[in-house]
Amino acid sequence: MQFSEIWLRQYVNPAISSEQLGHALTMAGLEVEAMDAVAPAFSHVVVAEVLTAEKHPDADRLQVLTVDVGSGTPLQIVCGASNARVGLKAPCAMVGAALPGFNIKQAKVRGVESFGMMCSAKELGLAEESSGLLELPAEAVTGTDIRDYLQLNDQLFTLKLTPNRSDCLSIVGIARDVAAITGAALQVPAIDQITPVASTGVKIAVREPEACPYYNGRSIRGVNAAVATPAWMQRRLERSGIRSISAIVDITNYVLLESGQPLHAFDAAKLQGDMEVRYAKQGEALALLNQQQATLQQDMLVIADAQGPLALAGIMGGLDSAVSLETRDIFLESAYFAPGVIAGKARRLGLSTDSSYRFERGVDFGSTRQALERATALILEICGGEPGDVVEVKSALPTRKPVTLRYERLLSVLGIPLERSEVSAIFARLGFEAHELDGRYEITPPSYRFDIEIEEDLIEEVARLHGYEHIPAIAPQATLAMLPASGNELNRAWVRDALVAGGYQEIVSYSFVDASWERDLLGNNDAIVLKNPIASNMSVMRSGLWGGLLQTLVYNLNRKQPRAKLFEIGSAYHKADSGYAETMRVSGLAYGAAYPEQWAEDERDVDFYDVKAQVDALTHGRAVYQAATHPALHPGQSAHILLDGKVIGWLGKLHPKWQQHYQLPRSTVVFECDLAPLLTVQLPRYQEVAKFPPVRRDIAVVVDEATPVQALLDTMNDAKNVLISDIALFDIYRGKGVPENKKSLAFLVLMQDTQKTLTDAEADAVMSNLLALLKTKHGAELRN
Questions:
Q1: Alpha carbon separation from 11 to 167, 179, 645 (Å, rounded)
Q2: Where does the B5 domain start and stop, copy by copy (predicted)?
Q3: Which end of the chain is more exposed for a tag (fewer CB within 10 A), N or C?
Q4: What integer pLDDT is reported at residue 576 of this predicted model?
């Protein structure tokens, strides 16, 4: 919200400087994001009138002007502006003036004396470019300091408002808060009801009273829409960031900024029959004021006549019913629309308007009629015309329920002593209706304070009006004690440290993702859809973290980073029987070379087993991998990650179609698993150290190509022979001597007895038993 300090001080004028005002607003929760001067510093520039204008004797593009600057003696000035002419009033910088970047001195221009300079907006620092002198109205008094005449000793305040403070999206709203903060008198414009001189003649039917509980409208006939907008109004609009368009449009924008109530003016000659407020029908379209053709949806509220939609309620008017300079009769609308009905609709159409911004946050329904009367008065004053009577349709408006505040609770939260009289005075300054009884305040907030709903809201109001800077910072006092921690539970930091130690870098991405990621990349056709997404490509909740990793990878590749190892720890979301479920996940991605470029290692792409080693480190070597297919992974290089017999995640190489989709020229391997199982570990247990040497025996068997190695390892480990201390695969062979579609697997078997040295017979018995198990369960044959 940007506004002019001079405009604000017309309604409330505390005896403090601009800097002090900015500080007071910020400390009261209305953060001043910027405070900029309207114009740079300059001096000795006055309103001047051109008395004569003659061609320069030695220059075709120059004129010799005689200028009245209000001093009694006209000045001779050489000027090259194309719009310099007799009778023109424009700024004149006299000799000795200091303009932005240069000073004015008496000079000769092509042999003719010049005692000053006529100025454009650019030369005064008011615009970056200008085509001629800054033309002033004929009623401007010559000799008046231009800074006073154009109110250039002004500051532009920009407030960074939180969404709950919609009441401060207007000058009057800000003035109310300044008056409450500083104690200065509030003097808002008096608004009287306009006496109608004719019948409006337009009937309004509100078909959706819940969406539009309050609608006001009136006709004004015989207006002069081509009249110029007064300079003071144009100045206030421009300093609030709104471009002047035409008198009637400017007046509605002015009342919007002043009161916070959006209004809209229709050209009455373009209306067909009576008007109604309803939801759009299937297939209806509307040409908006910005010339955008909007296809309306059935949850969009419209203002319509017998021919169809005229305006998108609370967002933007229609082009076909817009006022123009030829308009003579208008229908002026002021309404209250429910915030939930307007929210998100403008963004869905790629729009952002001042009206929708306010209606989405809540508009004061208590000033809807007053805004209509204020706009009517300004139109009659500036454009003339005859006002009709007000057509009013009212249904159930929002109720302002009393909120209870406990005095003891207030003191407990703020931690400072406050007299009851001070608390009551704060609520009175805020305009809240307050009743106190036995240490409890019953507070009824006014219609413009939508944000006051619970006790904590009232405590915040007391704190900010008392002044956050007046609440001392007291160091907390507490006893510290070590909390018991389970020895077989790790924390999230351990997982993060383990990945960082493996060369991975952490990212943080949005939980809101593109629906196509969920559908195509993760195979989730039932994603959780957001009701009011912040962007079209962030419309659903993620059920996995790979999308964010891939997006970050592409971002880095586009910036010439050829190698990336990324991970993220975050939540994934799914629908559940009882509603929604949130699961904490850890996900990783490796791309490019397995190692940084160096002399000691040959360059190769990262592969499945590099990332598998990292997952093994996270699971303390307890993970088991089982071949499985996933829509995002390569069919031959993807697997479930199992821990204690339960699937906890996925590991695999990115599917070629996704590698092509993301334009990844090198291998990309990803993994993702639930975080909780990784944080549970087995406590170390003492095991007697054998005093006798181990016995190693090797066994090589031939099995079908499709038989997993893990299956054989599981079979041998499940034998649970007490003499076996370790079994490991050390060789896989395919080729000469091994039949086609077969493979040879060689395992080492370590055996050890803690009580004695094993004999060959005992070791042979163990090996025979293992071979028999492998043959029975997997059809394994001893390799010759």
A1: 16, 9, 73
A2: 398-473
A3: C
A4: 86
Are 619 and 511 in contact by the 8 Å Cβ rule? The answer is no
Taking the C-alpha atoms of residue 654 and residue 26, their distance in angstroms, rounded to an integer, is 51
CA distances from 206 to 276, 285, 332, 395, 539 (A): 6, 20, 16, 9, 32
Predicted local distance difference test score (pLDDT) of residue 200:
83
Could you tell me if 284 and 380 lie in one domain?
yes
Q: How far apart are CA 266 and CA 717, in angstroms?
A: 84
Does 457 belong to an annotated binding site?
Answer: yes
Same-domain status, 413 and 541: no
Known binding residue 60? Answer is no
CATH number of 386's domain: 3.50.40.10
pLDDT at 520: 86
pTM of full prediction above 0.85: no
Greatest alpha-carbon pair distance for the chain in Å reads 130
Residue 472 has phi, psi (to 5 degrees) of -65, 150
Cα–Cα distance for residue pair 401/443, rounded to 1 Å: 9
Residue 168 belongs to what domain range? 2-38+154-182
93, 160, 501, 631, 764 from 670: Cα distances, Å: 70, 42, 17, 13, 44
Rounded to whole angstroms, the Cα distance separating 445 from 98 reads 52
**Helix or strand holding residue 768 (H, E):** helix 760-778
Residues 143 and 174 in one domain: no
**19 has binding-site annotation:** no
* Residue 680's pLDDT band (cuts 50, 70, 90): confident
Domain boundary among 394, 415, 437: 394
Strands 391-394 and 724-733: unpaired
* In a shared domain, residues 237 and 374: yes
Shared domain for 568 and 640, answered yes or no, is yes
**Whether residue 630 is found in the same domain as residue 613:** yes
Q: Taking all residues of the chain, what is their mean pLDDT, rounded to a whole number? A: 91
Angular region, 750: left φ>0, alpha ψ -120 to 50, beta rest:
beta
Among all chains, which residue has been given the structure tokens 């424009």? 90
pLDDT band at 780 (very low <50, low <70, confident <90, very high): very high
DSSP secondary structure letter of residue 184: P
HSE on the CB side for 196, CA within 13 Å? 13
String of DSSP letters for 443-511: EE--TT-TT--SHHHHHHHHHHHH-GGGS----------PPP--TTB--HHHHHHHHHHTT-EE----S
- Domain harbouring 24, CATH code: 3.30.56.10
Average pLDDT value for residue range 648-668:
92
Residue 145 within any structural domain of the chain: yes
Q: With 0-12 CB in 10 A as exposed, 13-18 as middle and 19+ as buried, what is 304?
A: buried
User: Was 364 annotated as part of a binding site?
Assistant: no
